[in-house]
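Quick one: structure for this chain?
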Amino acid sequence: MFIGHFAVGLGAKAAAPKTSLGTLFLASQFVDLLWPTLLLLGFERVHIAPGITSVTPLDFEWYPISHSLLAVTGWAVLVALVYQAARKYPPGAIVLGLAVLSHWFLDLVVHRPDLPLVPGGSMKVGMNLWNSLAGTFIVEMGLFAVGLVLYLRKTNARDAVGRWGLWALIVLLMGIYLGNLFGPPPPSVAAIAWVGQSQWLLVLWGYWVDRHRTAIEPALRSAYT
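Got it. Here's what it folds into:
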């Protein structure tokens, strides 16, 4: 699950129009932004095993800090509280907390039974949609289409950056997603971790684009721009 998480960030703008797309991206991808650093520090582990699923060659051996249900719930509460303290915008805080939590439940759909419920617990879950390339593609692209439509319906471009910067971001996300689906396995775990850190650039891109778009009222909505 990659583009589906960004879909949550896009769609969440409809529920929290005053919250920047960059912040919504940060929340929806929070645990995957945390995970690469934990890999580099040796606190969590992944193994490259080509063929383990039809979609990804990654065998997630140990990631209770970033991806156990209990830990993700804690991260969700923390993100919501920090945002509320900084911005005093309860709708945004609630949406951000739910966006963080949504990551685990979307992962639940696609992952093998490797998602822990609690750190150190033996019970692991996953519905294993990654065993179907077509099914994964349909689900993620469906989520992405819905998220994009919601974002477009809630915002309007103020200038060329707001218009073309958004579409460039969409094309980039699609390119990364297709590369993940059909590209070769990563060369090493270190490469996975460092490439994972580059997702921060997508968060920054979200802030940049959103500064050039305006949340609009239903009566003022125009054609998708």
